[in-house]
Each structure stands twice: as C-alpha cells, then as structure tokens.
Write a structure and sequence with these properties.
heterodimer, A: elongated, B: alpha/beta
C-alpha cells in the first residue's frame, strides 16, 4: 500500500454509492418547470425505454389482419406520404411509428416540433459530431 | 493497428444486442465457461449490463452493495488513475470466483451515475476508459475478457464497444422478431456513424430454438443465409438452462447424464460456438 491508499480507498468506495439522479450531466439545464423541449432533451439523456406499449385487443387484431392480407404496406405508404418521408420497412412497428406521427401532426403539431427541438438540444448538449 | 497494440494481446468480446430476452446473459455465462474449461483460457467476465447482476445470479453468487468490495464503476470515473496507483490489489478486489472457471466482475449500483458522468467528459476522452482498464490492468492476468453490455446505446455500452469491438449477438425467434437481423445491422451502423467506434459482428447466435416450429427453422435458416461465416450452431430451447440458472450454474457444471437431450445439445452448441468465436477473434 502507498501513502495514497486512504484517499484512493475513499474514492473507490464513493464510486458505488453514487446515484444517477445525483449526477445529472452538468451541461444539461434543468429548469424549475421544464418546457416540453427541455423535457424531451432530458428524456434522451436518461435511460428511458425506447419502447411505447399499447394494449388494445381490437387494434392488435386489425394490425394482424392488415399484415396477413398484405394491406399493411399500403397503410405504411400512405402514412409515409402524409409525412413526406421515406418509409423504413414494412413492419407493424414501422406502421405505428408513422401513424402516431401523423396523428400528432393532426391534433397537436406543436408537439412534433418540440420533439425535434428536444432531440437537437440533446445532441448539442452531448457534443456529438455528425 | 494502434488499437490492437493497445489491447496487449488479450482476446476480448462483448455480448450486445439492443433487445432484451434474447439470452444475452446466458450466452455470456456459457461462452465464458466454455472458453475457460475447453480452451484453458484465464477468462474474465465483466457485467456492465445493469445493476440486477444477472450474471452473478447465474453462477449462484449473491451480490449487494456491501459485498462489492471494489466497484467496476470506478474505472469510468476521473479518479481511476489515482485509485489504481493507490491500491495495489484493486482489480483483484473487484473479482468473484464463479466456481466454473471464469472470474466475474459484477455490476454495481454506481454504473448509472458513471454513465451520466461520462456525458461530462470531453468526447475524445469519453469512451476509452474501459479499453485502458483492459489493456493496463487486465491483460497481464487474463487471456480472454468477455463483457456483458447494456442492451441500449448509453455511454457504458459505447465504451464497451470501443474497448472490445467484437460483438456476440444472440437472437431468438418470435412473432415480433422478424426484423431482428435488419435491426442488428442498423443499430451497429448507427453506432459507427455517431461514435468513434467500429463494432464488428463476430458471432450471431440463434438461441431458444424449438425445432418443432416452422418459425424457428426459418429463423435459423435466415441467420445462416445472412451471416454464413459467423452464424453459431443453434442453441435449442431447453428447460435445463432455466432450471440450472435458477440453481446457480451453467450447463457445464452439470453431469452429462443429468441433462435432457436438449440440454446436452445446447451445451454442445455453446461449446462449438465458443470454438468458432475464439477462432474469429484470433484472426
């Protein structure tokens, strides 16, 4: 053991007792009442699940039918056209990803803009390069 | 080339796939034991996959905050240099004996905070801490380091991919798994595009295969077609894995005559997959 041991031991033990909520990245601004943009950026920075779950037997049956008959692809195509973006696959997940965006664009378009700004804010805070 | 030099000759790989429930931890445990028992490699397992410590449980080791004498999360902190210089046996204090060959460094509660703290580290220095730990602190002792990574794209996972580069991806058939192969490549490509790392698929392992179902057969055929050089032998679904996992061991710890035929087949598949993986890593 060297003379540094007590300090080093203390630092070592501190590592396992640190909590995520006590160590927010310093370059992420946390406001008292976060805006949707801030909240989205914070969500990107935390370890949220990337899955959204819907439990709805009727929709599940409908989508199973759409997939079985091959009509799902047309739905995906229509949703992608509406959003003016390229589709990325022919799965039910892709259909739902697009349809949720179409619906949000219809009833609350400002939320989609906030989502995009939140993502941008998160990227800038992480200093990522493209 | 510089990177290979930095590894100091140690073999490294990580189990990584951005999907849960595909047998990632089970694969890590069995491959590590096969490497230790069949290839006589000094093998170290590092669990960075979360604080539930599934790998420790797999080997019947009970872990809590008190039992972790030296946490792996310290490696990701700014003070690691001071800690490693100040405590001679700090790496030894991190490890637990699995009783089956490999040594285990378990996850600890500080990993979440370590992930957050890494976000404050300048990007050019953010991801090299685990790589440095492997080269400087592990290479002299171990022949093979296998890291079980979080199934997400956080700073710990990216550090793991930076450090080991070679990825083992277990995949299982299922109703919602049809795009798994595409997703696997897309996820790795996204990581290559966004971070200074270049993960390579070293093995794709079909797990939980039930040969009675067409879906399973098609799934295995798809994997073999997509990855002819790195597809592992199928690991069949067997009650033995869950039972012995619960009892705290891999299939390698069980006498052959106590295994079902499916258990023996899964055991052989893990052995063969490990042979194949080590051959790929040595290339």
């Amino acid at each position: 053991m060297t003379d540094d041991t007590p300090d080093a031991e203390e630092l070592l033990q501190q590592s396992k007792t640190q909590k995520r909520h006590e160590t927010d990245p310093a370059d992420i601004t946390v406001a008292d009442e976060p805006t949707l943009v801030d909240a989205v950026a914070d969500a990107y920075a935390s370890d949220i699940s990337e899955n959204l779950t819907i439990r709805d037997g009727n929709l599940a049956a409908l989508f199973a039918g759409l997939e079985e008959t091959g009509e799902l692809e047309a739905v995906i195509e229509a949703a992608a056209d509406e959003l003016d973006r390229d589709r990325d696959g022919t799965s039910k997940a892709e259909a739902l990803r697009l349809l949720v965006r179409v619906a949000l664009g219809e009833v609350a378009p400002e939320t989609l803009e906030a989502g995009a700004k939140g993502y941008q804010q998160f990227r800038e805070s992480q200093d990522y390069e493209f | 080339m510089l990177y290979l030099y930095m590894k100091n000759g140690i073999l490294t790989a990580a189990t990584y796939v951005q999907k849960g429930g595909v047998g990632k931890t089970t694969t890590a445990a069995h491959v590590a034991v096969a490497a230790a028992q069949n290839h006589d490699l000094n093998t170290l397992l590092i669990d960075l996959a979360g604080t539930q410590n599934d790998l420790a449980t797999h080997f019947g080791i009970s872990i809590d905050e008190e039992s972790i004498d030296a946490p792996i999360s310290a490696v990701f902190g700014d003070q690691w240099e001071l800690i490693r210089n100040g405590i001679d046996n700090v790496v030894e204090r991190m490890t637990f004996d699995t009783g089956e060959g490999p040594v285990l460094i378990p996850a600890d509660p500080g990993l979440g905070a370590a992930d957050n703290n890494l976000a404050n580290v300048p990007r050019e220095e953010r991801y090299d801490r685990l790589a440095d730990f492997i080269a400087e602190d592990l290479a002299a002792t171990y022949d093979f380091v296998l890291v079980d990574l979080p199934g997400k794209e956080d700073n710990i996972a990216i550090s793991g991919l930076y450090a080991v580069e070679d990825v083992i991806a277990p995949l299982r058939p299922g109703a919602f798994e049809r795009n798994q192969l595409e997703n696997l490549e897309a996820d790795l490509q996204e990581i290559r595009d966004a971070y200074p790392v270049d993960p390579r698929l070293a093995m794709v392992l079909p797990t939980m295969i039930d040969r009675r179902t067409t879906q399973s057969s098609e799934f295995v055929a798809d994997i073999r077609e997509a990855y002819p050089d790195i597809a592992g032998l199928q690991v069949v679904s067997t009650q033995n894995i869950g039972d012995y996992q619960e009892a705290g061991s891999t299939l390698f710890a069980v006498d052959d005559d106590e295994l079902y035929s499916t258990g023996q087949e899964a055991l052989d598949a893990y052995s063969t997959a490990t042979d194949q993986l080590l051959q790929t890593l040595r290339q």
